[in-house]
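Hi support team,

I submitted a single chain yesterday and got back a structure, but I'm not sure I'm reading the token output correctly. Could someone confirm the output below corresponds to the sequence I sent? I've pasted both exactly as they appear in my results page.

Thanks,
R.
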Amino acid sequence: MSKKLGVLIHGAGWVSGQHLSAFRNNPHAEIVAVCSLTQANAQKCAAAAGLDVPCYGRYGEALARPDVDLVAIGTPQELHAQNTVEAARAGKHILIEKPAAQTPAELAAMRAAVRAAGVRTVVSFVLRWNPLFRRIKRLSAEGTFGELYRVETDYQSYQGDWWGGYATGRTRAMGGSAMLVAGCHAVDALRWFAGAGEFEAADPVEVFAYSGGRRQGKTRQYNPLTFDWHEGEPLEYPGVEMLFVKFANGVLGRVSVDFECIQPYAFPVRLFGDRGTVRDNRMLAPLQSRAWQTLDDIGPESSDVKHHPFQGEIDHFVDCVLAGRESHCNLEDAAKTHAIVFAAQTCYRTRTPVALPEF
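Hi R., thanks for writing in. Yes, this is the structure output for that exact sequence:
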């Protein structure tokens, strides 16, 4: 290949640092510019990585560069939708951090812009590239567990001001909800494991949900890094959500997010099929073995982005762009994950099951 894909890193926080590192490690991509909300932040990000590239505080100016083929959007989540629309209108391929949108209206605008531009996208539900998840998904697609009928996933992590994004993420206006801020990873994993094929996520058709917990509005909070409590800014939304999802293929799902659990980060996964069962990193498939077997692949071990498999995701996306094909985790697919989260929010108001439209 004579020309590398020119990459614009948009954002200067934790996750953008991981985007930057992964694109630098890909032989078919080259970072040509860094942008942030201020030029100083962009310069700081580039300097920390030892990059000597142009830095911008104005997104439009960075997008106008003719050598930018692809944009990695790692800005605060309330900016993802507008950043995506602008990148699509500029004709750039787009990596979008999760959550992609804050509202159904934002999501609709993003999809319309991407469709009109014909650009490629990937939404960063990065755990699809986690080694343990990839192995479980492959075994499931091969029929090891038979026909699945039930899937369960959970996102368990006490979110407080130890997390750099808490100041805005805790609010309804900018964070939205626990499921939108972080639990959407578990929602996407639910869809991913409920799908039959190795690179197929299931389509949701109905959602019912509950929200609760004890933290909302309270200033007392726990720090899981120092194992103590202190006063701080409260969550403006419930810290616990539990969703029940019916999929088009007949699989039933349950997914929860828990921002209140006094424990280390955990991401439990359970698959139930008519020939076997998965519980986290253990599987029982009697046609292979009558005893539980341990899968030694690395699983989700931390909410810290440094532990997430961004390299696999970004290598996949670069390949998709170069080959002119869609990612299995493109915006159109990720819209189905977001639709489950938005349906839960509707359910909290109506207290009735929410039917989802066909996508």
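A quick pointer for reading it: The two ends are 36 Å apart (CA to CA). Let us know if anything else looks off.

Best,
Support desk
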